[in-house]
Design goal:
- Helix content is about 60%, strand content about 0%.
- The chain has about 90 residues and is an all-alpha fold.
- It has a domain at about 5-55.
- Helix 1 (about 5-20) crosses helix 3 and helix 2 (about 25-35) packs antiparallel against helix 3.
Length: about 90
């Protein structure tokens, strides 16, 4: 096989296993153990990352942030701390 075919094969291997949840570092060392050169693996990693980044959907909607002001009356009576009740403090 030519180098381009090896690289394409490694890129597909990386993309498939990254989608399965394997870490990039574990995949890299698995390929080194199989006898592939580190430079070829590094080039394939760059290409796989580039291809995977193109597949990620672009979020076009911005999240809507809402807030509501709540009055103190809705929370009910505020209790005094135990030590103020014990000593009869205000």
């Amino acid at each position: 096989m030519r180098e381009a075919e090896y690289k394409r094969k490694i890129v597909e291997y990386l993309k498939g296993n990254l989608k399965k949840g394997y870490t990039l570092e574990s995949l890299k060392w698995a390929l080194v153990d199989q006898g592939y050169s580190r430079t070829l693996i590094d080039l394939a990693i760059k290409e796989a990352n580039l291809e995977l980044s193109r597949e990620v959907p672009v979020l076009r909607e911005k999240p809507v942030i809402t807030h509501e002001v709540v009055a103190d009356e809705e929370f009910g009576e505020v209790k005094k701390p135990w030590w103020k009740r014990l000593f009869g403090m205000d």
